[in-house]
Amino acid sequence: MPAGFPDFRLGSVLATSFTATLTERRGDALERIPVPQRLVDWLVVSGLDVGSCTDDQLALARELRESIHAAATAAATGEALPVAAVRVINDRSARGRAAAVLTPEGERRWRLGPDSALEDALGVIAADAIDILSGERDGKLALCASPTCRAAFFDTSQSRTRRWCDMGTCGNRHKKARFHRKNAVSP
Ligand SMILES: [Zn+2]
C-alpha cells in the first residue's frame, strides 16, 4: 500500500464495501480513494483488476458510490429510492460487460474487457448494489448507529440486529466510550 493514503475498510459485501471508501460522512469525512490509483488499488483487493484509471473514471466511480449510498440509505430507512440514484446505478450496470468465470478451484473471478475494464468493474459493483437493494440476497440494509458515520451496511446476522457498519471501528469506538463513561462515574 502506498504510504500517505488512508487504508481501506473492506467488508464482505462488495457494494457497501465500496460505499465505505468514504467514511465518517456525518463527521470529519475521510475520502479513502482520493486519487485514481487508490481506486485501482481498492478494485484490485476487491477482485477487480482494472489496470489503470483516469480522473474522469474516478469521478464516475464516485458518482456511482454516492448513488449506491443514497439508495441504500433510503432502503434502510424505508423511504422511496431516489430516482437519480437509481438511474446512475442502472446506467453503470447496463454498461458493464464483465464476465463471471469459474476457476478450476471452483472460485468466481471477474473477466474484464481490455478496453473497458473500469466500466466493467463499476458494472459489477452496480449489479451487486441492485442485488442487495432489490432484496435478492438474504440480509437487510441498515444504518450504522454511530452518529458521525451512519454508513449503510448489509446486515446478514441471524437476528438482523447488527448496529455497526464495522465492529472493529465504529463498534469498538462505542464500546470504549461506554467504558470511559462508566469509569468516570464514582459510586
Ligand atoms: Zn459506522
What's the SSE blueprint?
Layout lengths: L13 H6 L2 E2 L6 E2 L4 H10 L9 H22 L6 H13 L3 E4 L5 E4 L5 H17 L6 E4 L8 E4 L11 H18 L3
Antiparallel strand pairs: 1-2, 3-4, 5-6
This protein binds zinc ion.
Zinc ion binds next to loops.
Protein name: Zinc finger CGNR domain-containing protein
Pfam family, one: ABATE
Brief sketch in words of this structure:
The protein has 187 residues and is mainly alpha-helical.
Question: Main traits of this protein?
Answer:
single chain, 187 residues, mainly alpha, Jann2411-like fold, two-stranded antiparallel ribbon, 6 helices, 46% helix, binds zinc ion, ABATE
Write a structural description.
The chain has a domain at 14-139: Orthogonal Bundle (Jann2411-like fold), CATH 1.10.3300. The longest helix is centred in the middle third of the chain and has 22 residues, at 55-76. The chain is globular, with a radius of gyration of 18 Å. 46% of the residues lie in helices and 11% in strands. Helix 3 (55-76) packs across helix 4 and helix 4 (83-95) crosses helix 5. The model has no long low-confidence stretch (mean pLDDT 93). With 187 residues, the chain is mainly alpha-helical. Residues 144, 146, 149, 151, 164-166, 170 line the site of zinc ion. Zinc ion binds at residues 144, 146, 149, 151, 164-166, 170. Residues 141-182 form the Zinc finger CGNR domain. Pfam families: ABATE, zf-CGNR. This is Zinc finger CGNR domain-containing protein.
